[in-house]
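[Discussion] Sanity-checking designs against the backbone

I'm trying to build intuition for which residues belong where. Below is a structure token string of 69 positions. I'd appreciate it if someone posts a full sequence so I can compare it with mine line by line.
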């Protein structure tokens, strides 16, 4: 449980409104050496086979508006 809490505390979010891209980094942002893109438009960034972050394309479309729910 302590590892999970530490990871959550070290997770960083950054949003680029011009490109409508949400960046999620697990720990300090670092360069990836590989990546995969899902059918939903999420780029999974990998370094040495481990996930170091996610890049969410068209982020506004993927966020649920709590007022509409």
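Best answer:
Here's mine. Compare freely.
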């Amino acid at each position: 449980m302590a590892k999970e809490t530490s990871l959550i505390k070290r997770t960083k979010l950054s949003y680029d409104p011009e490109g409508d891209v949400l960046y999620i980094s697990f720990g300090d942002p670092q360069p990836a050496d590989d990546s995969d893109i899902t059918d939903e438009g999420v780029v999974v960034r990998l370094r040495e086979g481990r996930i170091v972050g996610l890049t969410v394309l068209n982020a506004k479309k993927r966020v649920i508006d709590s007022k509409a729910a």
